[in-house]
């Protein structure tokens, strides 16, 4: 995978007021708070078309003119250290923000929704650039160690803590020799898009449609899949206007169903409905008849067997009957608060299983993986030189 240094645009004010979670993970409450800030990245990543006197094109020009954001004077690679807790254990992850070439050395692993790709294209066209990085992992066990070593000799540029409790420390790497070492360390590696499939596809489309070499590269956060701080969870599903209990007899034709009173963390799919958890294990003949892959991807089992064969939910009505949520506690609460009819709990991923499947070219259904911690938007902006 080819990466290179770049001149990012940086916010000049208090970074805490400017950053946000990635656009597709922001809750309604968070969005209201972020939009209330005078200069927050959401004004660019989630523009309110028709609700503002300033179009994204005019807003970005105004921000540059008012020195709200400014171009850094040197070509750099940004190092990001993230510190967080898992089960009371402190975890640290290192990665970089650079440009990554969008070519055959970069693999996608999830399908995309056409509507969301178009939305991202419109944002990028309006800004003539990219307001937030895509998330890439590389199967290189030494990459994160090199990044850690380089960061240890750098002065912290700025730091901030996210509402989720993740602490972010940002460093600017200007040393040419070290930058070249980072580039060389992964030039023969296959990059895998962890998060940002719609943005990646939008950039591919813009590259093809415009022929503009600017779109050959995407701003990307890159880390090693072997870093202890890289977590891969499942994305839970919220199901609307469908009664789970009424469908249990049909479900039992294709799944072995076990009723549980508490959630168990393992590799099985579960449904939460009316205070109970239902473990669903697909029967072998259901797998053989319906699945067309040698790999049993949980979300594909849900889409093809549970949704398609049992509940009659297909691609045409999936976007109106299915919602996605990244925290299992929130999914359970959504059911208990009657915000949906039931929730499907997708198990977390084992790294070796994910890596083998991704490198084998398996394309998972939309919203199959949740890589975390996420990368905050607003650390850097990548704009086409004027």
Detailed description of the structure:
By secondary structure, the chain is an alpha+beta fold. It contains 14 helices and 21 strands. Helix 5 packs across helix 8.
Binned, the helix content reads 25-40%
Helix-strand makeup class: alpha+beta
Question: How many β-strand stretches?
Answer: 21
User: What is the distance, rounded to the nearest whole angstrom, between the alpha carbons of the first and last residues?
Assistant: 27 Å
Strand content is 25-35%
Parts with pLDDT < 50 across at least 5 consecutive residues: none
Q: Mean of residue pLDDT? A: 93
The largest β sheet comes out as: 9 strands, mixed
Report the C-alpha radius of gyration, rounded: 22 Å
Summarize the structure.
Helices cover 33% and strands 26% of the residues.
Which structural traits does this protein have?
single chain; 386 residues; alpha+beta; 9-stranded mixed sheet; 21 strands; 26% strand
In terms of topology, how is this protein built?
Elements: E1 3-4, E2 9-11, H1 15-18, H2 28-36, H3 42-45, H4 56-65, E3 69-71, E4 77-86, E5 89-101, E6 106-107, H5 114-127, E7 129-130, E8 134-138, H6 143-151, E9 158-161, E10 167-173, H7 176-185, E11 191-195, H8 197-210, E12 217-224, E13 231-233, E14 236-239, H9 248-254, E15 255-260, E16 269-273, E17 276-282, H10 284-290, H11 298-311, H12 315-321, E18 322-325, H13 328-336, E19 342-345, H14 351-359, E20 370-372, E21 382-383
Parallel strand pairs: 6-11, 8-12
Antiparallel strand pairs: 1-5, 2-3, 4-5, 4-10, 5-12, 7-21, 8-11, 9-10, 13-20, 14-18, 14-19, 15-17, 16-17, 16-19
Helix pairs in contact: 5-8
């Amino acid at each position: 995978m080819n990466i290179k240094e770049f001149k990012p645009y940086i916010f000049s004010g208090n970074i805490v007021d400017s950053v946000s979670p990635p656009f597709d993970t922001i809750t309604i409450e968070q969005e209201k708070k972020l939009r209330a800030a005078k200069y927050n990245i959401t004004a660019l990543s989630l523009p309110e078309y028709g609700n503002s006197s300033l179009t994204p094109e005019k807003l970005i020009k105004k921000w540059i003119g008012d020195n709200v954001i400014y171009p850094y004077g040197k070509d750099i690679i940004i190092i990001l250290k993230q510190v967080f807790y898992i089960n009371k254990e402190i975890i640290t992850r290192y990665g970089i923000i650079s440009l990554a070439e969008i070519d055959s050395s970069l693999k996608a692993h999830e399908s995309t929704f056409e509507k969301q790709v178009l939305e991202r294209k419109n944002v990028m066209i309006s800004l003539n650039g990219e307001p937030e990085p895509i998330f890439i992992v590389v199967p290189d066990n030494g990459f994160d160690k090199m990044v850690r070593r380089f960061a240890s000799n750098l002065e912290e540029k700025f730091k901030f803590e996210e509402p989720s409790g993740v602490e972010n420390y940002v460093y600017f790497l200007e040393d040419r020799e070290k930058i070249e070492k980072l580039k060389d360390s992964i030039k023969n590696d296959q990059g895998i898009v962890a998060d940002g499939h719609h943005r990646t596809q939008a950039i591919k489309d813009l590259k093809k449609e415009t022929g503009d070499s600017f779109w050959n590269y995407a701003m990307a956060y890159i880390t090693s899949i072997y870093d202890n701080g890289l977590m891969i969870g499942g994305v839970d599903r919220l199901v609307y206007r469908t009664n789970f209990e009424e469908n249990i007899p049909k479900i039992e034709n294709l799944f072995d169903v076990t009723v549980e009173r508490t959630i168990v963390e393992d590799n099985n799919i579960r449904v939460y409905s009316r205070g109970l958890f239902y473990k669903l294990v697909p029967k072998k003949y259901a797998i053989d008849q319906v699945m067309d892959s040698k790999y049993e991807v949980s979300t594909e089992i849900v889409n093809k067997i549970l949704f398609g064969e049992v509940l009659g939910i297909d691609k045409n009505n999936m976007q109106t009957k299915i919602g996605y949520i990244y925290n299992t506690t929130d999914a359970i609460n959504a059911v208990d608060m009657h915000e949906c009819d039931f929730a499907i709990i997708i198990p977390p991923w084992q790294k070796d299983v994910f890596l083998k499947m991704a490198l084998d070219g398996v394309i998972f259904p939309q919203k199959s993986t949740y890589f975390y911690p996420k990368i905050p938007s607003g650390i850097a902006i990548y704009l086409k030189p004027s």
